């Protein structure tokens, strides 16, 4: 199933594909956090939901739970072949090191988009540095994603500025500021060109700090006209 990133995609982030029917009303896609799931490839093989999937298998060094081994990338390669998987998520660092290059190529061969991710769990880099990260990630895949940690509204402003600059330069980007101070970025970033938002169906299952639950984010984005 293709995912069209030319307009905003609201992704329900979950480790449990059984959440899909509940997510359907509000979400355009489901982000399957394979690294949080106990038997992700089995779950994927049995998936018969209606929403296209973004397959993510985040390693521990980028805030996830997957061990940093070949099995992590092999599983993503298998996921990329699944009809329901419209995109795989790969970390920029894994692409730059060469480790994930084969997964990206395999995804492309199967018509599966590549989301290139970077996360900063410590803070928010300067606007120019974020702009450069987005440009670099854009070179490696279809959507360049940057999640930072905001300590105040100024950080969010910088992130939105970098988002706007990248989007107006023609790059397809997804940005969000994690943490309490960054929360509102999730609602407004689509207005500045961000093309993916992530939210759990149940707030107790958040996959990053500061996420709104899915129904709330969907309502906010819609009311602000970002969808
Ligand atoms: O990379 C991202 C963005 C995210 O970290 C967020 O802040 O919403 C949530 C993750 O599930 C997703 O893979």
From TrEMBL:
Organismal lineage: Archaea, Methanobacteriati, Methanobacteriota, Stenosarchaea group, Halobacteria
GO MF annotations, alphabetized: 3-dehydroquinate dehydratase activity
EC number: 4.2.1.10
GO biological process: 3,4-dihydroxybenzoate biosynthetic process; amino acid biosynthetic process; aromatic amino acid family biosynthetic process; chorismate biosynthetic process
Subunit (UniProt): Homodimer.
Enzyme class: lyase
Family in the record: Belongs to the type-I 3-dehydroquinase family.
Catalytic activity: 3-dehydroquinate = 3-dehydroshikimate + H2O
Job description of the protein: Involved in the third step of the chorismate pathway, which leads to the biosynthesis of aromatic amino acids. Catalyzes the cis-dehydration of 3-dehydroquinate (DHQ) and introduces the first double bond of the aromatic ring to yield 3-dehydroshikimate.
Active site: 119 (proton donor/acceptor), 145 (schiff-base intermediate with substrate)
Pathway: Metabolic intermediate biosynthesis; chorismate biosynthesis; chorismate from D-erythrose 4-phosphate and phosphoenolpyruvate: step 3/7
A Pfam family it matches: DHquinase_I
Protein name, UniProt field: 3-dehydroquinate dehydratase
Keywords: Amino-acid biosynthesis, Aromatic amino acid biosynthesis, Lyase, Schiff base
Amino acids binding 3-dehydroquinate: 31-33, 58, 186, 207, 211
PANTHER family per the UniProt record, alphabetical: 3-DEHYDROQUINATE DEHYDRATASE
């Amino acid at each position: 199933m293709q995912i069209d990133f030319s307009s905003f995609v609201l992704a329900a982030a979950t480790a449990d594909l059984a959440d899909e029917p509940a997510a359907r009303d509000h979400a355009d896609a489901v982000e399957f956090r394979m690294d949080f799931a106990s038997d992700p490839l089995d779950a994927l093989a049995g998936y018969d939901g209606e929403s296209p999937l973004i397959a993510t298998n985040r390693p521990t060094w980028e805030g996830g739970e997957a061990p940093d081994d070949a099995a992590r990338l092999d599983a993503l390669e298998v996921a990329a072949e699944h009809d329901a998987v419209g995109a795989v998520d790969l970390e920029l660092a894994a692409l730059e090191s060469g480790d994930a290059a084969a997964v990206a190529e395999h995804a492309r061969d199967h018509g599966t988009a590549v989301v290139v991710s970077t996360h900063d769990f410590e803070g928010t880099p300067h606007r120019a540095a974020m702009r450069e990260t987005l440009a670099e990630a854009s070179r490696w895949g279809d959507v360049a994603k940057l999640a930072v940690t905001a300590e105040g509204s100024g950080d969010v402003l910088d992130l939105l500025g970098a988002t706007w600059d990248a989007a107006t330069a023609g790059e397809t980007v997804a940005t969000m500021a994690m943490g309490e101070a960054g929360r509102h970025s999730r609602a407004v970033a689509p207005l500045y060109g961000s093309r993916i938002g992530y939210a759990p169906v149940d707030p107790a299952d958040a996959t990053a700090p500061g996420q709104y639950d899915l129904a709330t984010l969907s309502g906010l984005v819609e009311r602000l006209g970002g969808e």
